[in-house]
Amino acid sequence: MAVNLSIKGVPEHVAARLRARAERNRRSLQKELLAIVERAAHESDVHAAASLVNGNASGRGTDSGSGQPAATPVTPEVVTRPGSLTVEEIAARLRALYPEPVADLPRSVDIIRQARDSR
Using one digit for the tens of pLDDT, what is the confidence trace for 37-50? Predict the structure, then answer.
């Protein structure tokens, strides 16, 4: 079941920036706020998963075995999993698997050009 949330006392400059962000993303203010909250909830899931991968079930990083909380929190941009690949490595593997384009399928660049030229 959906839950209604309310934030009281939002400064006008913050509300104005949120309205501008919603407009840039072609969303209503409510949809933009929901997108922000969903992203924040997802990030907390990523932090919890990263803590489990790093062997720290508490969900918080510790400072080099001292048991004290880490000075900087783990962020999704910094977290890497063992065995993960870079974009370049994935591209190299795909090029090795598919050295030649499939002959009977159109290339994406041709589809885009055709759509652009048909206007």
Answer: 888 887 766 666 66
Check residue 50 and give its pLDDT. 60
Model pLDDT, residue 82: 66
Q: Tokens at residue 66, please?
A: 């001292």
Amino acid at 90: I
Render pLDDT for 23-40 as a digit per residue (tens, 0 to 9): 998 999 999 999 888 888
In contact, 54 and 78? CB cutoff 8 Å = no
Q: State the chain's maximal CA–CA distance in angstroms.
A: 65
Q: What is the pTM of this model?
A: 0.41
What b-and-e string marks burial along 58-77, b requiring 16 or more CB atoms within 10 Å of the CB? eeebeeeeeeeeeeeebeee
Cα(114)–Cα(97) distance, rounded to whole angstroms?
Answer: 28
CB 76, CB 46: distance < 8 Å: yes
DSSP state string for 16-74? HHHHHHHHHTT--HHHHHHHHHHHHHHHHHHHHHHHHHTT-TTSS-BSTTSSSBPSS--
